[in-house]
Task: structure prediction
Amino acid sequence: MNNSMKLSLSTEISKSNNVGIVSHLNPDGDNIGSILALGISLEKLGKTVTILKSDYVPNDLLFLPYVNKIIKVEDDLKFDILFVLDSSDPERLGDNKRYLSNSGIVVNIDHHISNTNFGNINIVDSKASSTSEIIFKLIEELELPLDENVATCIYAGISTDTGRFMYENVTSSTHIIVSKLLDTGIDAYYINKKLYQNRSLERTKLFIEVVGTTKLLCDNKVSIAKVTLENLSKTNAKPEDSDGIVEFLRDTETVEVSVLLKEITTSLTRVSIRTKDYVDANKICSHFGGGGHLRAAGCTIEKSIDESENLIIEVIKNYI
Ligand code: 5GP
Ligand code: MN
Result:
């Protein structure tokens, strides 16, 4: 963040009382972690904060402090300032997109390469490991309140978006930030157990069911699996219980691209893509109006799961 941006953001925060915070559909740890961290910090500063719920909160994030502050709002509230976090474009907000035109100023804070700079102030750094990392820097630079609760949420956001500090988006700055988070007194072992050793039985059953159907294509460079509505009903799992499968598919030695197709309805499919070395996941998903990062992206295709599979394979073949 350069000095003029810092100044204008700092001025806007001091001028405003009524703060809204929102993030994307199909939430992950960075989404929930960053909105809670900023929300808790600004509330400690004395602001009236509303954290808008765009979608469900995943089970493994329900332990985060103040998670019940993420609320579904039916009335059209007006905010002096609206922070949109971890969201590459307004469509990602679902119904909460309406708050963009209902707010005095929109601050867009994100690390997606596909971000459209839709805010009045845009703090977009595609090199940052996570939006949570950007939020930490902002809290530090603007001298906003930081406590164990804020730090717990930021730790969860960074850890989940870096694949537990594994991906190429991890820098020395990421580790320095984590060191500062640990110094606030957070219990990292507790956070890690909650995040990674707490899978529901339904989720484990879904994993076993789905991974067994994996197909390997293009000289074993492409790995594809499908989560059908039948898989979900058989295992009593929810659609979000498929989180983690696409990373498992990626982790085979020969695999460069992994794809998980999720049947939402008989004519609507969600796609998650992960890549390892040279294929740009964001490019593949942008063919279908989606986006994300170089190594992780997603899109929605208005076709059946089988038709979507064929379409996505055709596109991947051009990049492999
Ligand atoms: P996931 O596969 O976990 O749903 O998403 C991987 C990454 O791509 C996340 O950073 C997510 O925000 C982004 N992403 C997923 N779906 C979409 C989409 O439909 N549009 C855009 N622009 N980004 C997406
Ligand atoms: Mn993120």
Q: What stands out?
A: The first strand starts at residue 18 and ends at 22.
